[in-house]
Amino acid sequence: MDFIIVGKHVRIDPKSIVSRMSNFILDNPDYFGCFCNILIRAKGSRRVIMKDSIIEAELLKGTIRKEMLDDFNKLLQEFYEKEDADNGKTRGKVVECLITKIGPFSFQTHDVEILRECSIEDEYKNKVGGNKNFDVAFFCKYTCLTELSAEFIESKLDLNNFLLEEPSNPLNIKMSKAGSEKLDYIRGVSETLSDSKHLVLAFATVRYDVKFSQTVLKQMGCDKIVHIFTYNDLKKQVFKC
Predict the structure, then answer these.
(1) Architecture of the 3-11+98-240 domain
(2) Fewest Cβ atoms closer than 10 Å to its Cβ: which of 144, 150, 188, 215?
(3) Is the pLDDT of residue 1 over 70?
């Protein structure tokens, strides 16, 4: 049976804060770590205080250039305004936008297609694994499954928060309902596309410490099926661009 990858082509308004912030990070990769730290830690009513504290610490360490700070702060102000307007979705959108620009992570090619909200359909247009999808897919043109080189990525700002039922409780390493449902979907895709030339099914996160997520994936028997691209993997790609 033949299978096809379907989804939306990447179209992001170049004037949007999502596009401009991701471009700033790519043009100034020294700000990537600072920005990720802000995404993870600077939240809620104290987000501005936390943001300023994180930036001050990065300046003291000399990891970011001071001459770009005004531009960064202006973008952050607009970023927060957009975040308030869309109930916090902007954080994840910026990370997803970055991923579309720095991937793929696991193979190299100059001829790669990129799709968002992508899924796999059989020749009868039935979706493999149900109605879920991946945030981003990178793949080469193919005529049969054994020629397929592909990377399917689910972008999660903080993977521990998504996969774990109680992410703040290290004594309860138990998978969340949403995480379990996504893994069931990934298993179905993995089995269907197992004959691919190159296949990576992965979570991508700006968190660098994912040991609890790795533990719960192993408990579910998915550690050999699902890869995790962490902060360090994303940082490496950002500095390569």
Answers:
(1) 3-Layer(aba) Sandwich (3.40)
(2) 144
(3) no
